[in-house]
Amino acid sequence: MTELEQQIVTIISAAGASKAKAFEALRKVKESDYDGARALLAESRQADLEAHKVQTALITAEMSGEERPEIGLLMVHAQDHYMTSQLARDLVEEFIEIFEAKEKGGK
């Protein structure tokens, strides 16, 4: 496996872990365990940061002209996983706010 492929797999793995934690947090929301959900979202955010670091390194290398990685299906797959993990986390954060406010009698 090339260094680029290893970096791409790191993005996929970290994004997958992030998304899994976000959906685990959503199950906590269904149980009205908002503190537990927030804790899981913090773990999700940490996994996303790992993916973000690798993505940023690849983008920086490309922009500096150091190397121009070939954009293949594996990289597209990695970006897809990374973006959906961020979306999942963002949505679960909103669900926490909505359902917690509803339980407290708010809007």
Description of the structure:
The chain is mainly alpha-helical. It has a single domain (3-103), classed as Methane Monooxygenase Hydroxylase, Chain G, domain 1. It has helices spanning 3-30, 34-64, 73-103. Helix 1 packs antiparallel against helix 2 (34-64) and helix 1 runs parallel beside helix 3 (73-103). The mean pLDDT is 92. This is PTS lactose/cellobiose transporter subunit IIA.
Write a concise keyword list for the protein shown above.
elongated, Methane Monooxygenase Hydroxylase, Chain G, domain 1, 107 residues, mainly alpha, PTS lactose/cellobiose transporter subunit IIA, 0% strand
Order of helices and strands: HHH
Strand residue content: under 5%
Distance between the termini: 52 Å
Number of helices: 3
Domain count: the total is 1
CATH structural architecture: Up-down Bundle
Offer a quick outline of the entry.
The chain has 107 residues and is mostly helical. Helices cover 84% and strands 0% of the residues. It has a single domain, classed as Methane Monooxygenase Hydroxylase, Chain G, domain 1 (Up-down Bundle), CATH 1.20.58.
Write the layout of secondary structure elements.
Layout: H1 3-30, H2 34-64, H3 73-103
Helix pairs in contact: 1-2, 1-3, 2-3
Protein name: PTS lactose/cellobiose transporter subunit IIA
Organism: Dubosiella muris
